[in-house]
## 1
Amino acid sequence: MADRLVILGSKGGPALRPGGPWPSSALLEAAGRRIVVDCGLGVTRGLTEAGVSLKNLDLVFVTHLHSDHVLELGALLHTAWTAGLSTPVRVYGPAGTAHYWTRFLQAMEFDIEIRIGDEGRPDIAELVSIEEYGEGEVLDAGGLRVRALRVDHPPVSECYALRFDFSGRGVVFSSDTTYFRPLADFARGADILVHEAMLADGIDRLVARTGNGERLKEHLVASHSFAADAGRIASEAGVGRLVLNHLIPADDPDVGIRDWIDAVRPNWGGKLTVAEDGLSLPLGDGVVDTPAP
C-alpha cells in the first residue's frame, strides 16, 4: 500500500447541490494504516471509489462535531460492518463523539440486532471503540504519531487541527478555523498542509442561495479562514505543499481555479493544490501542482 492522501469531499458546509462536490472527508494511507479524517456526507462512497475495501476500515478521526464533518460517521461504520468488517476499528473524536455513537446504535437497534441474529454477524458495538481526545498527543504506535491542536472555530470549542507524522513525513489538517497563528508552529516543516479556504467574493452569493442571510455571513467570517490566511499559515510554517480544501464557496459557477490561485499567491509562493473530490496525492514524488487556466 503506497502512502497517499485522497480528498474524498472538498466542500465546506453541509448543503448539497446538483452536480456539486461533497462535504469534508479525507483518506490518509500511511504507516500501513488506512486513516479516515472526518466523515461528512459521502465519505462511504468516496472511500469505495478510492478503492478501499470497507471491511478493512482501520482508524477514523473526527476533528469536530459540525455535521459536515461527522454526519456519516455512524453510516460509514455500519456499512463497513455489513460489508464484512470483523476486525476492530478505533474512532478518535472530540468530547461528544461517544454520545453520538451511542445514539446511533440506539437508532439502528432493530437492524443491528436482527442482522446479528439472522446473519450471524459479530456485535458492531464490540468492534468499534470510541476514544475522545483533547489537545496534545492522541496516538503514538506502529510508526504513526498523531497530535491535536485546539483551533479557533467559534462557537465550537472542541475543534482540533490534526498532525500525522510517519516515515519522516508529516501531514497536517487545519480543520475549520479562523486565521490562527499557533497553527503555523503546529504545522512547522510538514510535507503537506491541508487548510480550509474561503473567498470573500463568493460569500454574498452563497448566503443568498442558502437563505440564511447575514447570520450565516457573520458565522463564516468569524469562524473560517480566507484563502490568503491559508497562504500565510503555509508560509509561516514552511510546509512542502499547501492543499486548499473545505472550499467556501465550492460550487459557485463564477468561481474557478484561477480565483483560488490569485487569492493565495500574495502570501504563498510554494507548491499549491486546490482540492476537488477524488483528488489523490502520492506522499512523495509525482505530485502535480494545480495548473492555472
## 2
Amino acid sequence: MFGTSLAARFESYINGDTATLFSALVRIAEAKELVLYLVGGSVRDLVLERANIDVDIATESDAISLAETVAAETGVACKIHRAFGTARLLISEAYLDLATARSETYPQPGSLPRVQPVTQSEDLGRRDFTINAMALTLTGPEKGRLIDNHGGLADIARETIRVLHDASFIDDSTRILRAIRYASRLGFDIEPHTLSLVQRDKHYLATVNQPRLRLEFRRVLDEEEPERALSRCEELGVLREIHSDLSFGNSQAAAFAAARREIDSSSAVYYTLLALTLSAPQAASLADRLATTLMQRMAMEAVPLARDLVDGWASDVRPSQAAKALRMYPEQSLWALALAAPEARAREISRQYLQTWRHVRASLNGRDVQRLGIPKGPTVGAVMEQIMDGLLDGRLQSREDEVHFVEKTVHNYQRQGEYRLNE
C-alpha cells in the first residue's frame, strides 16, 4: 500500500527535536483517540522524496486544544493563531504546525478568509493546487491511508501545477506567485487552463494588502534560485501587477546568481537589485508596496542615488575621493551596483570599494601620530584622513611612508608656524 510506505518514509525523515515533538503529539493524540493527518506540501514533498519537509499536521478535532495539551505535558513552547485554528509547537530550532481541518470563504478578493471546521476530505478542497491537496493518515485504524481526491499524485507524475477550481486566484491571488514558485522550484509546468486563469486574474494582485504580499514575495526570494520564479513572473506580466515599476531582466537574473556566489548574505542584496534601474521615488514606492523593513527600504532608495553619483564622476576620480563618497551608502546598495550597474565603470568602482578600498587600514593610529609630534585635537583626525588618502591613492605604501608623512607635517609646522598638511 503506497500510503503505508509513505508513512514509513515520513517517520524515517524526521529526527532529533522534530521527532521528539512528533512522538509527543502522537502519544497524546492516540490517548485521546484523535486522528492526525500529514497534509499539503508536506505530502507532496514526501512523494517527491524531498527529505527536508515541513511538518504540517491536521486533525478534525480542536488543534489548538491538542497543541496546548502537548505543550503543558512536555514543556515545549506553543504559538497559537486562534482566528485560523492553528498552532505551532516549538523546541529548540525545530517545530511542527498543527491545524484544525477547515473550510475557507473569501468575502472579497484579496481579503483574509473566514474559516469553519470541516472533515479532512473537505479541508483538502480549499487547497491551492492538486499537488498540495493530499493527506496522509498518521494515527488511528487507517494509519497509512493516502487521501487524494483531486488527482494530486497524477499531477505529480505529470509534473503539473493545477488549481482545484476556476475561482482559486480570485479567492487568493497570492496563489499566482505560489504557482510560479512551485513550478520554478520543482521544474513543473503550469497546466494550460491554470495558466489562462493566471492571465485572467493576475490584476487581483493589486488587491492584496502589504503584509500578505510581503510574506509571499519574501517566500519567492527565499527560494534557492529566486531568479527563476521572478523571470517567469516577468514573462507572464505578474510583476507589474504588484507594482507598475517592478520588472526583472536578464542582467538582474545573472546578478542574483552572482550574489549567491560572492556574498554570504546574498538575500539582503536581492531587494536592492530590484531597485537598480529605478529612480529614488520609484524605489521608495516599491519598498512601500513590498512592506520592506526600514533597512531594506533605505538600501533600495540609496541604489539610484549611488548609481547616479558614480555615473557622474570624471574618468580620473581618485580612489580616495570615491571611497569617501561610497562609504556613506549601504553595503547592499553598492553590491547591486557592483553586480549589475549598466555602466562597466560603475561596476568596477563599486567592486573596488567593496573588495579593496573599504578594507584599507593605516598602520599608525591617533596616539602614534601624537607621539610623532601632532598635538591632540582635530589636527590628529585630519592627519589620519590624509594618511588614508595616501594609502588609497598609492602615495603611501608602508608604515615607514606613514611615519615620514607625519614627520614632514610636523616639520612644516616648525618651519611655517601652522599645521598645513601635505598635499
